[in-house]
Amino acid sequence: MESFPTQGSPPIDIATEVLEDFETVIADDERLRPSDPYFSPLIAGQHEGISPLVDLQSELQEVDYSQALCLFDIGSEFLNGLGFDPGDSTSFDILFDETMLTNSYGSDIQTDTAYERLNRAVFARDTPSQDQRERLDSWIKRPLIPRQYDIEVIDVLIRIFFRHVDEVFSSFTDYEVSVHTLPAQVLAMAAVGALFSNSAGSEIIAKLYYTDSQRMLTYLILDDCSINTLERSASLLQTYIALEIFGLCSGHQRSDEISEASHSGLVQAMADHQTLLDNTDLLLDSASEGIIVINDILIIECYRTLLLQLQPSFARPHLQLVQTLLGRLEHSDPQNFLDTASVTTFYQELSCIGSISWFAMSHPTGNCSSPMGQYWRPETIEMYSQRLLESKPTEFTEMPSARTLLFTIVMALHTPLEHFQDIAHTIVAREGASRSATPVELGDLHARVLDQWTHSGHYDLALSHAGQILGAGEEIVASQRARRRFEATHDAVCVFLATLVFAIAKLGTENDSEAKVKLSGQVKIGIVLLESFQVRISTVFKSILVLLDNESWHGES
């Protein structure tokens, strides 16, 4: 396939010459910048050799174009804003360094989660060298420089972003890019869209846009006066949301850590947005839009707590929303519990339950009380989930991505997921160090946890819910092939966690060959589903599960 020709140069084969030469030149000469003649044709123009537009356009067949306002239509003033990058991204291949893992407010990253350790084990070879660290320090100190982005490519990637995001995050539903939209948000949305693209070079484009957006955001939050309207404040929140989605979906070894490092910035931006809402006289529609984006952040909290096993950070608006919704769920008539909560969506309501479910799960450090001053029992979370389903039967039936999230919430109540991810980490790390046919040593703690789980009443319940997640995943794949509905941002992670449960259950089934065959069959279903998903991280999950499916183990005596 031909790439778009550079002005004054012949077409270049994207699969060989350009990408290899691009990496070589960056490695050999750290002084090169995007404004240099060599790089300008690669980053400006049509992104020659990186992401051919013809591939992207082919992915948009039969997609509703009415969802997004084409960037060509919003005027030159806004587009000129995209032409300036607050940093030189020629070194975007090394930008995921721990020197970037502290947010602008100075707070440190939380202790590593099992999910993060497992993710890094897959990419251990990508640890930056000392030379890369020095280049990164030099890159960070460079001044702002102009860069010309290919607006047409960005427009296509944003459309891909919308079709995978707007069902879950309602603040992006029918969203139109306008003069109020921050350039950082545009690039963040395009970066996420590139994660769902199968076009050649889309992963490189995703990293480039993500890096530029992060740098723009860093400069933006240091300039408080630039966020002085409700529209720009909402755009700032949506930028954070898109960047955290990128951290979840990218599969890069440190992007999820970067998202965690900047999460307190999101919480602060949400508090500032709430202050603007409280101090501004708004029409009802404008007030509802301002509240919806805050409620969407609760979905991010649900993702962090359920999928990454991080304790939720409940801000004041979320505490009020959770208390209100859960209070109504406790009434005997669930059909009416949302009558006065018209600005919430099914996913936002589900995320209320998902966020508090963290306090009912089993954690290695013990259960924790919630900021609402009470402990939660798994039975209570299941009751809330059941009543939500009874109140929204249509959404539950017609939205398989909602089912993957809900069944993951319930499955996690019956599964020591953090231990399971640590077991997977042990196997993946061992595989990376040396290939061995001997059974893996799990250690006494993990062996005991696995044995207790397989002989408890939680075992069958967890496998049942995991099977329902895979069933919903099969519906998503079928709908995606028919171009009726597309995978949501959480589907790949939910399918991975469900398949992980089957894989670890297989490891714990020592003498039952029939059960091993059945469990292995479920693991293979999960692997096939992940192969069918488009999001970048699905390939990471697949490689982990293939290793687990071929593994055996014995605990320490």
From TrEMBL:
Q: Which superkingdom does the taxonomy of this entry point to?
A: Eukaryota
* PANTHER family assigned: TRANSCRIPTION FACTOR WITH C2H2 AND ZN(2)-CYS(6) DNA BINDING DOMAIN (EUROFUNG), TRANSCRIPTION FACTOR WITH C2H2 AND ZN(2)-CYS(6) DNA BINDING DOMAIN (EUROFUNG)-RELATED-RELATED
Q: Does the keyword Transcription regulation apply?
A: yes
What protein am I looking at?
Answer: Transcription factor domain-containing protein
Under Gene Ontology molecular function, one entry of this record is: metal ion binding
Which keywords are on file for this protein? Answer: Metal-binding, Nucleus, Transcription, Transcription regulation, Zinc
